[in-house]
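[Discussion] Sanity-checking designs against the backbone

I'm trying to build intuition for which residues belong where. Below is a structure token string of 217 positions. I'd appreciate it if someone posts a full sequence so I can compare it with mine line by line.
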């Protein structure tokens, strides 16, 4: 349940802020990480940062609406607000990725999922490279040369992250899932026990004796 909800929430980030639905995504991911924290405490830090990003993305969505709809609110008129919001967003997102991959690596070790652990390490390195390149691209003289490579790298990175989350959803069995399956199995047994026909104690056997009489001998 945790990784499935995490996948759904993360899908909103693939829209590259084209439409302001990221608050929904961070809300879902925070709820998912809260569930995963019960399986491994390494997800706690990622959950906290995701909650912070939920509020940041609400402000970002409000800023997006102001700029696209021409509201021109006075307290948002300064262009430096856009720069500050972008900086906070990308720094927060970088921290979120690093903590998320740390949690995935931890739970992968816990359950013996080596591919998940290795993929989390590779994506951690990729995140460091990407956000270091983002800082370098701030330099005006090289910004034009790095825009397209960074967009392509970000797309591949996010698809790789989504693939890792989906593989964890498919292959990692948590205690919560085991308890749910056990509960469903018990409900199945109880339901079928109630439906099972009761034996007729007065039905005669092939020798002309009833079951009740045979037990009385």
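Best answer:
Here's mine. Compare freely.
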């Amino acid at each position: 349940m945790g990784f499935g909800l995490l996948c759904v929430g993360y899908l909103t980030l693939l829209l590259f802020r084209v439409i302001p639905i990221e608050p929904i995504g961070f809300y879902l991911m925070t709820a998912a990480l809260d569930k995963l924290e019960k399986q491994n405490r390494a997800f706690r830090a990622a959950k906290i940062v995701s909650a912070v990003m939920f509020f940041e993305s609400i402000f970002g969505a409000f800023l997006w609406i102001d700029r696209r709809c021409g509201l021109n609110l006075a307290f948002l008129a300064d262009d430096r607000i856009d720069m500050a919001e972008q900086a906070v967003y990308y720094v927060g997102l970088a921290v979120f990725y690093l903590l998320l991959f740390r949690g995935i690596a931890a739970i992968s070790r816990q359950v013996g999922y080596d591919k998940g652990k290795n993929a989390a390490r590779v994506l951690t390195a990729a995140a460091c490279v990407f956000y270091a390149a983002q800082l370098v691209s701030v330099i005006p003289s090289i910004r034009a040369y790095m825009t397209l490579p960074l967009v392509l790298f970000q797309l591949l990175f996010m698809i790789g992250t989504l693939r890792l989350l989906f593989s964890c959803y498919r292959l990692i069995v948590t205690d919560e899932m085991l308890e749910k399956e056990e509960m469903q199995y018990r409900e199945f047994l109880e339901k079928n026990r109630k439906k099972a026909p009761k034996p007729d104690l007065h039905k005669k056997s092939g020798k002309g004796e009833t079951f009740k009489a045979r037990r009385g001998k």
